[in-house]
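Hello, quick one for you while I still have it in my head. A protein chain has come my way and I'm curious about its shape. Can you walk me through what the tokens say about the fold? No rush at all, and the record is pasted right below.
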Amino acid sequence: MSKEALEAKKAVVQEIKSHLENSKSVVFLNYQGINVEQDTTLRKGFREKDVVYKIYKNRLIKIALDEMGITGYDPNFLEGSTAVAFGKDEVAPASVLFKMKGEFRPKDKEFLAPKFGLMGHDIVDATKVEALSKIPPREVLIAQLLGMLNAPVAALARALDAIAKKEA
């Protein structure tokens, strides 16, 4: 292997490590069988949620994971076609993936199947990645919480208003 090729591969490993360090969640997925139109739509969906979507060689992903001390994943997951979605929040990569998967081929379990994921440096299996996809975005969760906190106060205000109108 030439020196230039080796340096290029080292640069890619550094890029992967940088993305891993700056991501709250990462999903490794099987992208085999996706056509160009679907890939374009998927990339657009990821971009809209500020998710970096890249395709890397499995060997370079493994080197980056090893250098960061991330172990415990099944090495067989890094075989075949692997794409990686790096997210700045905990649920975006998984939610975009499963939304698009459902739009493309809702009944095909193998299509765009997550291999595994990372939450920080912790390994999560494919079922947990799918569970993450069902969590609403942060903004929705905050709105739901505020609604729950506001409900008792609103009920008290209505009750006091009803009493005041009854006495008047």
Residues 136-168 form one domain.
